[in-house]
UniProtKB/TrEMBL annotation:
Keywords: Membrane, Transmembrane, Transmembrane helix. Residues 270-587 form the Sulfatase N-terminal domain. InterPro entries: Alkaline_phosphatase_core_sf (IPR017850), Sulfatase_N (IPR000917). It comes from the Bacteria. This is Sulfatase N-terminal domain-containing protein. It comes from Helicobacter marmotae. The chain crosses the membrane at residues 77-99, 111-136, 148-168, 197-216, 223-243. Pfam families: Sulfatase.
């Protein structure tokens, strides 16, 4: 082939120019790859969820320096989150509570307690960090457990910080009240219908916030480090304050309440006094009469109805029927289609007092549960004296009976033998927890890791007994009109720390006669004890002093007096003996003592079947006004009770038709299934 032909051949030309052409193709490929990378990166930047997913699923490669650095960052985030969570619960919040009132703790144990709290923090955080280290290189499906764990811990820490520092009260930002003796006093309730919804909404918001912050792990790590320094600094301040604070004594005012003179003003004309003792088992009065024969001398003119049935096992369902009559029992209200009873309870408390006002009586009501004072005041007006038993007689009681040094020494002795670690850790958990969990950490004034709180029980005992102990000493006869008084005392209610001298005593021994102590009460195996009898006996002794005052002032004869209880307790020995160790109903054995005007005969006993809802008709009889009458003699009664004292909506757990003797099981018929309510 000629040389010219060979040069013109495409194959030969391609062969001759192969090297320059390869370089050109390589350059074109690089440009195309660069452009595609830019497009891909742009698309990825527009998909943060995809980016986070890649972060979570990207496996760690120890040879890749960048991935190793990322792994270290997430390890730091996890460790800082664990340290902050544990420190906040075990150190920060307990130190804050401790410094707020050092008088609640034993000064000799301060250093030991604070060191123990710090030790619990070190132990818990070290253990959690050690356990979490096993997940650093683990994967579930395609997800890195390290990154998932650090994300989850970040969410928990954020939730804990906000609840600890911002949401310290309920979701409406209302305070739980002062934490006195490790119990919240008079604030917003821990339970709430909307708690779970608020927790859910806030939890979702926190998940979203942490999701955004997770794109910036360096920033997240720095935030957690700042939180650590912040918590440490505040705890240091609290610690300094603890060691440099002097123990102060918290004394209630020794002044009598401003309402005392009107509340306890009796008339030389007519007086109707209704005194309700919370949780007094009616049959126990018979035991007192057996053990103290001279006691009946103080109750001349009274009739003791020793066969009295409560209408319910809880105060809030009983007291409206006491003042309003049988129309305001749970079953009666349900038959009327009423499930939210507050307005009906308000009517029950105001109907008879309002009528008495219109008939020229001075009205005084003390102990308004389950009503709010301001609501009742709107109905009865300013002329009525209304008061809630909030312990306003405590200071005067302590001073009058010279109890201050005795109480101080009793509390000091108790603090020396008990540490508060369980309570402080529980409070730390409570502060950091969402609302739904808080209700499980603090329940019925008891903490998760401290179910016994003798300090608060002792304080509560003084509060509950102080009013009835002071009534005989602070009454007067200055009323210018006939008087009606409804007074409800908690002196016989749990806790029971009164000794044989009726002094508050953490180590009080029961005065119940031994024959009754030998009767095993099933419910006492859990928490209760025979000291209930002490409080009942002390309440009766205080009442005898009050009756003596009325006699000395020559107003006993012109006074009609009803002494009753809203319900009994679990210790109706007469029921238990006749029913194989089981109570009948729940706390159904109620007290009822009645004295009419100008009655002075020796104490009488009457076994007629009665109900504490009959009290309303008795008031009407004494005041000579028209109202609903009680059931005829001998007719069956019905005991109703609900599941819980915290219910806002009426319900019936059990209902019984009871006839004749309430202490005999054969007289109780369960009629729950036959009751139909709207």
């Amino acid at each position: 082939m000629p040389e010219e032909s060979l040069r013109e051949s495409p194959a030969i030309q391609s062969s001759c120019h192969s090297e320059p052409l390869g370089e050109e193709l390589l350059k074109e490929s690089l440009v195309a790859y660069r452009d595609s990378s830019v497009v891909s990166q742009t698309q990825t930047d527009k998909k943060p969820f995809y980016s986070l997913f890649k972060k979570l699923t990207h496996k760690h490669n120890s040879t890749n320096k960048e991935n190793a650095q990322d792994s270290k960052i997430y390890q730091h985030i996890s460790m800082l989150a664990i340290i902050n969570i544990c420190f906040m619960i075990c150190v920060f919040t307990p130190f804050a509570v401790y410094s707020s009132d050092v008088s609640q703790f034993d000064a000799t144990q301060t250093l030991h307690t604070l060191c123990a709290l710090f030790g619990i923090f070190l132990l818990s955080s070290s253990l959690l960090i050690y356990l979490s280290s096993f997940l650093y290189k683990a994967f579930i499906f395609k997800f890195s457990m390290l990154k998932l764990m650090s994300y989850g811990l970040s969410v928990i820490l954020c939730i804990g910080v906000v609840y600890t520092f911002v949401l310290v009260g309920d979701y409406r930002f209302k305070s739980y009240g002062v934490l006195e003796n490790f119990v919240f006093q008079g604030g917003a309730p821990i339970y709430g219908r909307f708690n779970k919804y608020f927790d859910l909404i806030y939890g979702l918001c926190t998940l979203g916030l942490c999701f955004v912050l997770y794109h910036f792990p360096h920033i997240l790590r720095n935030i957690f480090a700042i939180i650590s320094l912040w918590l440490l600094s505040l705890s240091g301040i609290y610690g300094f304050h603890i060691f440099h604070s002097s123990e102060t004594s918290h004394l209630s005012s020794t002044e009598l309440p401003s309402y005392n003179d009107k509340l306890l003003a009796f008339s030389k004309d007519k007086n109707i006094l209704v005194l309700i003792l919370d949780a007094f088992s009616g049959s126990h009065f018979e035991i007192m009469l057996e053990d103290n024969p001279t006691l009946q001398e103080h109750f001349k003119g009274f009739t003791y109805y020793h066969n009295t049935l409560a209408t319910s096992n809880n105060t809030q369902f009983n007291t409206p029927a006491i003042l309003g009559g049988h129309s305001y029992t749970t079953l009666s209200l349900l038959k009327q289609g009423i499930k939210r009873p507050y307005d009906s309870y308000l009517q029950a408390f105001s109907k008879i007092p309002k009528t008495l006002q219109e008939n020229g009586y001075e009205i005084a009501l003390y102990g308004l549960d389950p009503l709010r004072k301001e609501d009742l005041a709107k109905v009865l007006g300013d002329e009525a004296t209304l008061a809630e038993n909030k312990g306003e007689y405590m200071g005067a009681y302590i001073q009058q009976y010279h109890l201050q040094s005795y109480i101080t020494q009793s509390l000091a002795d108790y603090k020396k033998s008990h540490n508060a670690l369980g309570t402080l850790i529980s409070i730390g958990l409570f502060r950091a927890a969402p609302y739904t969990i808080r209700a499980r950490i603090y329940k019925d004034e008891r903490w998760l890791f401290a179910s016994v709180n003798a300090l608060d029980d002792f304080h509560t005992q003084i509060k509950y007994f102080s009013d009835i102990a002071m009534f005989p000493l602070t009454s007067n006869t200055n009323a210018q009109k006939p008087t009606f008084k409804y007074i409800k005392s908690l002196s016989s209610h749990y806790p029971w720390y009164l000794d044989h001298d009726c002094k508050p005593n953490i180590s009080a021994q029961s005065q119940l006669p031994q024959a009754y102590k030998n009767i095993i009460v099933k419910e006492y195996q859990n928490a209760y004890n025979h000291n209930h009898y002490n409080n009942e006996l002390c309440s009766i002794q205080a009442i005898t002093q009050w009756l003596t005052y009325l006699k000395n002032e020559h107003i006993y004869d012109n006074s009609a007096i009803i002494i009753a209880s809203d319900h009994g307790h679990y210790d109706s020995f007469k029921q238990i003996l006749n029913n194989h160790g089981e109570q009948l109903g729940k706390q159904s054995d109620a007290l009822l003592l009645v004295k009419g005007f100008f009655e002075n005969a020796p104490l009488k006993r009457d076994g007629m079947l009665m109900s504490n809802a009959d009290i309303a008709s008795m008031i009407c009889y004494f005041a000579n006004i028209t109202c609903a009458h009680s059931y005829p003699k001998g007719e069956s009664r019905i005991l109703y009770h609900s599941n819980s004292p915290f219910e806002e909506i009426l319900s019936i757990e059990k209902a019984f038709s009871v006839k004749e003797n309430i202490y005999e099981a054969k007289n109780w018929q369960d009629i729950t299934s036959s009751i139909s309510t709207p």
